[in-house]
């Protein structure tokens, strides 16, 4: 079968009985080998991804009821409470797919519904063969009970339900029933009215578009509502018709000249009222039976929006009256509410139609009109205008940005649209700031670079952010600056704190996404110092917002920010808040410690030095975490590198030399160590000269050069050295641990506590002492210039730590504490 591709929109009915747009694609019908049958396929037009795959099943299988509606719509129920719809762009494509569906299911394409057979019994199959249709009793007063029983018994069976729907439709039964209703109401026949209620409710559950078109016509709909007033479970009938005719009033804020449009609006309102107020809440089994009713309302709304959009005179009058200063407040209120509902209806449109809708509103001047409305004092009008503005921002933020940049060239900052939005956010009178939260979300969308366009000759991000920081940022930050002029917030009530938290949330977003503009603003306006005043707030959520703002800045690892923080001593309020929090284990404590831990782990050198040099005395007693001691260790290591740059250079040379050696070279050097002249090692002498004696690079290189000379003499001196070793009487040689300027230790016997200064890098109580006690790291050196190198990964760290206390290690240990060399 040849595939026929047509452009369609896929819809699904959600739990709220609203149609969700699943995407636009192209539909085809063909044989699918995997499914072993003819199937309906819809692939997305953007990436050819499969949006829908539906197999047509023959009548002998469980299959679904397909409806053809409005010439371009096919609707069916895929499963319980799961409806789908295909909306075709062209009628020809819809007709072709409908013909193929009917061909597989053995139906005439001229019908608008296919046969559905669900779990039919043998008796039903026999009835299907023997009786082509269902015979209805005469529409008479004394047969209403029989008709009510027939309708009730037919609903559980899809086959009988279909037969009943066809019979009611073909015999014009609905109009006969409504005539009988008027008779019963005149006679006050309560029993007959109760039967008519059950009958009319059952007809709704038949879920058939042709029946709805009759029931919702102008001459029938009020009588249908009348039938549904007499619920037998209620002691008194409802008064729905009275409400619709006397209480509910149709207001034409702008006269509608098209009678068809006016009739469609009336019909949609009444059908919506039936669905929401008149019909009883459907059971879980009946919910799916009203899918056609939901679809009827949905597509009515689509038609209304399209007809209003095409009426240029109507829209022109609407926006003219909205912006006219002579329009009174009540009239303007009605106009704004109409426009809000109009925009809400537009959400039912397909994307391409929605594009045209908002483009039409933009051309009509909706944004200037909103600017006028937002400047009014009426809270309800402003609220409706905010809802309309949210529709525009969510749909097309670039359109809004372009408008505000253009108006900035003509108007003052105070009356710019974005500044009006910011002012309404700041002045929200709601104690919970519900409106402010909504407006903050809209502002965040507008300043989000992710949805800004960039073309070859125009960069929206650069232009708009420059505009925003020049014309709007000072309005946004005004409450923050006004409330942080002293060491504590000027106003610390709950509503003010909530507002400041919202502003800080937006500023934090800007720090993450507007690197250049926000950096200049923060540094030039000293924003961070003012924000940190809020750490003294009695509201923990606001203090945490301030900490989060600073944490985002530090997380950028930008030296401009770091110099700004150090120059203004901006860690001081953070540490003050930490100390004031005391020993309480809460979010404040964790947030501050995490900030310092980040500085330590990421080794932000400038901030580490600043913190230790200025605040160490306040933090040195904090020992329940190792964060601050770790920062001190980082700082000491940095200072050591700065004080001994030549030593650092020497380590680099030695490291490069070590890692180039092979195993045989290492063995030769170890043998050279044992063959060395013992006379070079005199008791009581230091193995390596202290670091302060290393005056030049030549002194550092001298041991290496001597080692190379001794290596050449190895063969000639070997016997003599071994002879001396045998006479020395020393046994069990142990390697001396020797680092530049370090305390001598022995691997075979650890030094006593008397040989270690308290608090020195080698003492057990000092930070880092655990690494220093490792017995596996050795570097062997002799005074005479013999350098024995053993390569371990931790020796560099130990060397750096050992050098910290150079002066205390200058004096050699007593001879009793020195390690002994023996064979």
UniProtKB/TrEMBL annotation:
InterPro entries: ARM-type_fold (IPR016024), EVH1_PP4R3 (IPR055236), P4R3-like_central_dom (IPR006887), PH-like_dom_sf (IPR011993), PP4R3-like (IPR051137)
Biased segments, Basic and acidic residues type: 707-722
Signal peptide: none
Disordered: region residues: 678-823
Bias (Low complexity) ranges: 734-760, 769-790
GO terms, molecular function: protein phosphatase activator activity
Superkingdom classification of source: Eukaryota
Purpose: Regulatory subunit of serine/threonine-protein phosphatase 4.
Name of the protein in its database record: Serine/threonine-protein phosphatase 4 regulatory subunit 3
Source organism (scientific name): Oreochromis aureus (Israeli tilapia)
